TrEMBL record:
List of residues binding L-glutamate: 110, 450, 474-475, 496
GO molecular function: glutathione hydrolase activity; leukotriene C4 gamma-glutamyl transferase activity
Domain of life: Bacteria
Protein family membership: Belongs to the gamma-glutamyltransferase family.
Descriptive protein name: Glutathione hydrolase proenzyme
Post-translational modification: Cleaved by autocatalysis into a large and a small subunit.
Native species: Saccharopolyspora kobensis
């Protein structure tokens, strides 16, 4: 039986907060702000993976800024402290709820392929080049969309100008931040390729060594970049000297000849930069348990895939189900959603994407009936045609799971007026292309490797092959949920293709299983993406339900960590809850303007 529409009135006790000790900065520098996994209060809320960025967002709100102002300021700060996940050289998706109009709107700031790109972008002699070589190259670099996203968001919903909201991040880059264990580990994981590029090596391997935990890392070049953009606007990138430096770096990768690394050049032009535009896009929308769920439409696959999976789950009372049944249904719905994602979702400017049909309840019902309580669907599940839903018939295919880099970052912001932002931004791989633009202090993305190098399913059309000016498919899933037209919660995560399953698991944990938002975010995760094995964290496999799932037929592959979600929720009394990770990526940072006593 379908569950009744939910009416959420959960009271939140601030007992789940995790407060990390302040790291000791280099002499004369400020300590790292504390990390709280949960905060409750009024005046607005900010949640991100980084305490410096969250504090900057709170300061903007306290000084009269809107949710959009704070979101841009947080994103710019993450370009300093989380440079391997996102930054000036990347792109992303910005989802905004406007308290005055009651509307949810989105900005597509995804990177684009240069005009020279075609379906053979990553082929040599008719065969795909090795993936790791595509990642660390000029070929994989898309035209950045992040700076224009910032400006566009401020134009639409901001109260402050770009120069003002960039100023705290400029100061942070100039003064430096305290290196934590996660930053050192990510640097170590990239050390070999970072050493191949002098500008990258000089910035992230100071003195030729890995940065020490507790030391201060400064980035004066990025501070200067932010200052130049504050003076000239984003044209400094799209029609100025910063852009000229980006094009030169893409086309002539500044690799150290002594590194012995082949780094293929790209073919980006200044015309590609001048021609870049963000896109105002209608969000995806569906109702789930009587709530309105809004997400990012294609080229992101987040809104359609999370939405299809929720529609599949709509017919099951997940509140009454035991935990094994709940997890089984969640995994199978994810599997089916990914089957349809891989077949149908790409850049809608270049191929027909049946967005509305993918989100029809009739289509979801035709897929939900494939799920059995005591068996697992064989993989890979074949896609179905959402425009012509058929009676249940489970089929398999020869398709492979497309790869998508695991890094990215997500921030969530709400202001005192009730405006809400869910913003996911990225440079793709951890460390992006590995190439810092000399003298500019930021890494270039490798987003074009999100394209399929060859068709995923032989003999079937693939909407995600490269093309001139095309945007690669993404899994970023910034999501806002409304109850009776008012914001209830917003959530998102990094994690490549696991973003979709992380958001889905967090939503169902909160909306169906009665967890607080911080507990739903902290819950052990598993990610099924239409493959024979399901990625699962050690804590997930340690649960007794994991053995029961194996008995049904689920197979698991251990992975250290999945995602790093953040979210905000509005309580019935109007206060805000900010929620972040307790442990993943060293713990996130949640804060409110005026904490509750």
């Amino acid at each position: 039986m379908p569950a009744r529409p939910v009416r959420l009135t959960l009271a939140v006790l601030v007992t789940g907060s995790v407060i990390a000790p302040m790291a000791q900065a280099a002499p004369g520098g400020p300590p790292e702000p504390p990390k709280d996994a949960e905060a409750v209060g009024s005046g607005g809320a900010v949640s991100s993976v980084d305490p410096y960025a969250t504090q900057i967002g709170i300061d903007v709100l306290r000084n009269g800024g809107s949710a959009a102002d704070a979101a841009v300021a947080v994103a710019a700060a993450l370009g300093v402290t989380e440079p391997y996940s996102a930054g000036f050289g990347g792109g992303g998706y910005f989802v905004h709820y406007d308290a005055k109009t009651g509307k949810v709107e989105t900005i597509d700031g995804r990177e684009t392929a240069p005009a020279s790109a075609d379906e053979d972008l990553f082929l040599e002699d008719g065969k795909p080049i090795p993936f790791d070589q595509a990642v660390t190259s000029g070929l994989g670099v898309g035209v950045p969309g992040t700076p224009m996203t910032w400006q566009h968001a401020l134009d639409k919903w901001g109260r402050k100008d770009l120069a003002e909201v960039l100023r705290p991040a400029e100061q942070l880059a100039r003064e430096g931040f305290v290196v934590d264990e996660t930053f050192r580990e990510q640097t170590a994981d990239n050390e070999e390729r970072f050493r191949a590029f002098p500008a990258t090596r000089d910035l992230f391997l100071p003195g030729g060594e890995l940065p020490e935990v507790g030391s201060k890392l400064r980035n004066p070049d990025l501070a200067d970049t932010y200052r130049e953009v504050a003076k000239r606007g984003v044209d400094a990138l799209y029609d100025g000297e910063i852009g000229a430096d980006v094009v030169k770096t893409v086309n002539e990768p500044p690799v150290d000849p002594a590194a012995g690394r082949e780094v293929r050049p790209g073919a980006m032009t200044t015309d590609d930069l001048r021609g870049y535009r963000t896109i105002d896009q209608d969000p995806t929308h569906l109702t789930y348990r009587g709530l309105d769920v809004y997400g990012m439409a294609p080229g992101s696959s987040g809104g359609t895939t999370v939405g299809e999976a929720l529609n599949i789950l709509e017919g099951t009372d997940l509140t009454a189900a035991d935990k094994t049944q709940y997890l089984h249904r969640y995994l199978e719905a994810s599997k089916i959603g990914f089957a349809d994602r891989n077949r149908w979702v790409g850049d809608p400017e270049y191929s027909e994407v049946p967005t509305e049909a993918l989100l029809e309840q009739d289509f979801a019902d035709s897929r939900a009936c494939l799920i059995s309580d005591d068996a697992v669907l064989p993989t890979p599940v074949a896609a179905a045609d959402p425009k012509q839903p058929q009676d249940c018939a489970a089929r398999t295919t020869d398709g492979a799971e497309p790869y998508e880099g695991p890094n990215t970052t997500h921030l969530t912001v709400a202001d005192a007026e009730g405006n809400v932002v869910a913003y996911t931004l990225t440079i793709e791989q951890t460390g992006g292309s590995g190439i810092v633009v000399p003298g500019r202090g930021f890494l270039l993305n490798n987003e074009l490797t999100d394209f399929s190098f060859t068709p995923v399913t032989p003999g079937e059309p693939d909407p995600n092959l490269p093309g001139p000016g095309k945007r690669p498919r993404s899994s970023m899933s910034p999501t806002i949920v409304l109850q009776d037209g008012q914001p209830l919660l917003a959530v998102g995560s990094p994690g490549g293709a696991t973003i979709i399953t992380t958001v889905l698991q967090s939503l169902t944990g909160r909306l169906d299983r009665g967890m607080s938002l911080v507990d739903a975010i902290a819950e052990p995760r598993a990610s099924q993406r239409n493959s024979a094995q399901t990625d699962a964290e050690p804590a997930f496999l340690a649960q007794p339900e994991a053995e029961k799932l194996k008995a049904i037929g689920h197979e698991f592959k251990k992975t250290a960590e999945i995602g790093a979600a953040t979210g905000v929720e509005r309580l019935p009394d109007g206060r805000w809850v900010a929620a972040a990770e307790r442990e993943r990526r060293g713990g996130g940072a949640a804060a409110v303007v005026t904490p509750a006593r």
